Amino acid sequence: MSEILVIGHRNPDTDAICSAVGYAEFKRRTGMPEAVAARCGDTNDRIDFVLNTFGVPAPKFVADVSPKVRDVMQTRIMSVTPDATAADALGLMDERGIRIMPVLDASRRCCGLLSLFKLSKFLFPTANRLVDSRRVLSSLTNLARTLNGEIIVAQKPDDEEDLTLMIGAMSLESFAQRLDTFDREKLIIVVGDRWDIQNLAIREGVRALVVTGGLTVEAKTLDAAKKKNVSLIMSPHDTATTASLCRAAVAVRHVLNEEFVCFREHAPLAAVREEATSSGHQIFPVLDQEGQTVGILSKTDFLKTVTRKLILVDHNELSQAVQGADEVEIIEIIDHHRIGALTTHQPILFRNEPVGSTSTIVADCFFRHDVELPKPIAGLLLAGLVSDTLNLSSPTTTARDAEILKKLEKIAEVNAREFTEKLFASGSLLTLKTAPKAITTDCKEYTEGRETFSVAQIEEIGFDQFWKRKDELLEALAKYCDRGKYQFSALLVTDVTTQNSLLLVAGDENFVSQIDYPKLEPGIFELREVVSRKKQLLPYLTHCLKRMRAEG
Predict the structure, then answer these.
(1) What is the DSSP letter of 533?
(2) Of 165, 161, 337, whose CA–CA distance to 244 is shortest?
(3) Which residues are CB-neighbours of 308 under 8 A, at least 6 positions away?
(4) Which domains does the chain possess?
(5) What is the rounded CA–CA span in Å between residue 326 and residue 65?
(6) Nearest to 13 by CA among 45, 57, 35
(7) Nearest in space to 491 (alpha carbons), one of 533, 433, 545
(8) Which of 198, 200, 297, 442 stands the most exposed, by the fewest C-beta atoms within 10 Å?
(9) Residues 450-465: pLDDT tens digits?
(10) CA distance from start to end of the chain
(11) Model's pTM, two decimal places?
(12) How far out from the chain centre does Cα 310 lie?
């Protein structure tokens, strides 16, 4: 499949969502129609408020971008039903040039695989099993259809029966002697215009008579067949061809291979590769969640290139990226955070600027390249900008942010100050979310040397709700730290009205002891005039880590 996902980090904040939507719009307007805005985490109340305010749908949810079975499977399935004849299957195989196909029932559930190899073994038995060459497992209706013939006299033509084939190409005396060696009610006699053989077979009450060569049958022979309840089929082929075709009238459910390996369409390719390549099977049915067959995977499909590509916005570290980002091509990064340890296989466009928000950079793309900026997109970018800079009051704010914000206000026809007040009043995480949800809604993972840690942020109007829930927040943070096996986990709770924050830390006591901000309670510190995770808190935390290493 061909798509380019413009996607923010896990647990996306307002800036990540808004910049993804905005940059996807910019790319589409500048020659990349396959660009699609995406997200790898849930939206929150504030993000929903922004999207609803400007009438823009949420980006598509993508939890994992690693190549999946559905990315390379064949969706045009050549198949037959269990009741199709071997002749039907062989005709389709010959027409499409395939050697194996699935057998699907009416609900598109796979009953097994039908291979040319197994069909040939059935139709042409080995010398030590020549008795099988006489066996015709079919209904007379299927037999006539396989012969492209016509049933002239029919007795229970739709009943499937296990019949024996006999050729009437001998003297009448020899034919009569051979009849005595078979159960007449199970016999199919294939014969040309030998009226003597025909009539003897009818008198003896064989199951069916197949007259070959497209020859006519005398009226008295037809009458006799009707009286003796002998079915009569006319074949347009000669006797040799007719005899060879009779075996192919068998329903494929009798000759399919019921042992097969199937995969789910959303299974990662890497997870099924070894099982598929080590299997003796050549193709693998691909099933959806309901168990219906939606594709076919062959071993050669693993050689296909998955053309999904990524444009990362508002982050540049794989630890924060959507799952599977390391397995697909990253073609661009648009960000305003520190540069992490991300490597690519080839040169890419990497735009990293020390501004207050990624939305600022995206808006600047429109202005710099003189691309029309739609009013709803301008509103989203304004929301991302004021959210990340606390309406230009954060220490991360630059003159460029202020300049861009003025332009966005004009295009979106929105007053930034009034909108910011509504934005932060639109949803309090500490009021609406459980403690485990609140501490992970805007959480990022970082790696510094050998240590990995997480830092989350919650922006509130006042600290009243925090003090009511501090104990459960600390407990949830400690569990999250243990589950992630982090050196420590930190939560910055910021009061957007006073521009002050409280810091909660759980994890390694040696690290916690390095924090020299005023300690209000165990695990809770007061950080006056600290509101920025990336510019103020993160450098401080990495400094504490280095100091801990130096002392240890």
Answers:
(1) I
(2) 165
(3) 1, 2, 3, 4, 5, 65, 67, 71, 328, 329
(4) 4-67+307-425 (3.90.1640.10), 86-254 (3.40.1390.20), 429-551 (3.10.310.20)
(5) 9
(6) 45
(7) 533
(8) 200
(9) 899 999 999 998 899 9
(10) 51
(11) 0.66
(12) 17
